[in-house]
Amino acid sequence: MAQKKPLNIGLIGYGFMGRTHSNAYKRVNDFFDLEYRPVLKAVCGRDPAGVQAFADNWGYESVETDWRKVIERKDIDAVDICTPNNTHAEIAIAAAKAGKTILCEKPLAMDLVQGQAMVDAVEKAGVANTVWYNYRRVPAVSLAKKLIDEGRLGRIFHYRAEFLQDWTISSDIPQGGAGLWRLDAAAAGSGVTGDLLAHCIDTALWLNGTINTVSAMTETFIKERKHSLTGKMEAVGIDDACAFLCRFDNGSLGLFESTRYARGHKALYTFEINGEKASIKWDLHDLHRLEFFDHADDSLIRGWHSVHVTDGDMPYMKNWWVPGLQIGYEHTFVHQVADFLADLAAGRPTAPTFRDALVTQAVCDAVLDSAEHKKWETVVPV
After folding, report:
1. pLDDT by residue (tens digit) across 65-95?
2. Strand order in the sheet with 101-104
3. Can you state the angle between helices 198-208 and 139-149, rounded to 10 degrees?
4. How far apart are CA 382 and CA 126, in angstroms?
5. Of 131, 181, 239, 382, whose CB count within 10 A is highest?
6. Contact between residue 223 and residue 179 where contact means Cβ atoms under 8 Å apart
7. Which CB contacts under 8 angstroms, 24+ apart, belong to 221-225?
8. C-alpha–C-alpha distance, residues 81 and 100, integer Å
9. Mutual orientation of helices 88-97 and 112-125 as an angle, nearest 10°?
């Protein structure tokens, strides 16, 4: 067996996303034949005890408590940014200047201006980069992309998506701090728009092309929450719910909704696409299945049918188990690492790149602007 090239990883941030990424780095070479092998070289966090415990559990060789030291280290090849949104730009720009390969959690930045600065930095430095929009790597979603690109749906008329949760309904939940920074506008930038709808938008752009105009509404149901860092009641600046209409360049219409106030839903992400020939729909709760309706079927048997996406000729599945045995959420991150390492060896970009993610950022910004100004907004071309 040929010796694999090590790619030394410096992980910055060790929360939920730090776990998913670490798992992917550890498992990718077990299932994918790749030229590169990730090495868990360093993990960085502000709490010395917490980051050391994480390093011990996941097998990182060293710890840092200042992200700048990770970037300065000569033994770090790739910087993985798993920190709150308001720190992405500073870390990524510094990493690019240091010539590091960069993987960044979504959304790319707090806004389009920050995102553009990040894109400029990585493109000027010529460093490999990607953003962790992992739902592209669900085999069923990748299969949907294949069917659309083959023209099986024909002309697309409608794209609709929703991402529903219910975890912030209680007014007793504080905002801010390590576990609840997503509720703090200063750290997150926005609420469900940047956290949840960004996933829906990225998938939609990948499957259905450019969004050019949007009309949105948002709501913050609980106006004040105690802040974990100050202990004081402070105004809530994020959007608890967002819904928007949009038009795509291909002429189709879009309908998107996200909320953290849908009692009974923990992470309901679905999309449906209606075309002249066929329709498809997908549900994260049943992520290994793709629902397909083909109008060309004989009328006696025409109807929705469920495709169990586990056969070896389906995206990614030849690397896993035998047909009929499904995979889960964590495998989407393994797939992104596998694609990134394969692309790195071939010298090609891994989508979504920072520039790809900037397009999603432009849509998010337009959505928030539309909700604020109560009018249709044009998405800024990037």
Report:
1. 999 999 999 999 999 999 999 999 999 999 9
2. 62-64, 36-44, 5-12, 78-81, 101-104, 129-131
3. 30
4. 19
5. 131
6. no
7. 221/261, 222/168, 222/171, 225/171, 225/173, 225/174, 225/175, 225/183
8. 12
9. 10
Helix (H, G, I), strand (E, B) or coil at 178: coil
Give the residue ranges of DSSP H helices in 162-301: 185-188, 192, 198-208
Burial bucket for residue 307 (CB in 10 Å: 0-12, 13-18, 19+): middle
Element (H, E) at 330: helix 329-346
Do the bridges between strand 36-44 and strand 5-12 make them parallel or antiparallel, or are there none, so unpaired?
parallel
Give the three-state DSSP class for 176: coil
98 confidence band (pLDDT: 50, 70, 90): very high
Concatenated DSSP letters of 99-151: T-EEEEPSSS-SSHHHHHHHHHHHHHHT--EEE--GGGGSHHHHHHHHHHHTT
Tokens 């940014």 -> residue: 81
Pick from 168, 176, 170: nearest CA to 231: 176
Model confidence pLDDT, tens digit, residues 102-156: 999 999 999 999 999 999 999 999 999 999 999 999 999 999 999 999 999 999 9
CB atoms closer than 10 angstroms to residue 330: 13
pLDDT per residue over 230-283, tens digit each? 999 999 999 999 999 999 999 999 999 999 999 999 999 999 999 999 999 999
Q: Cα 120 to the chain's mean position, in Å? A: 21
Q: Is 67 helix (H, G, I), strand (E, B) or coil?
A: helix
3-state secondary structure of 239: coil
Tell me phi and psi for residue 260, to 5 degrees: -105, 15
CA distance 171 to 225: 7
pLDDT at 2 over 90: no
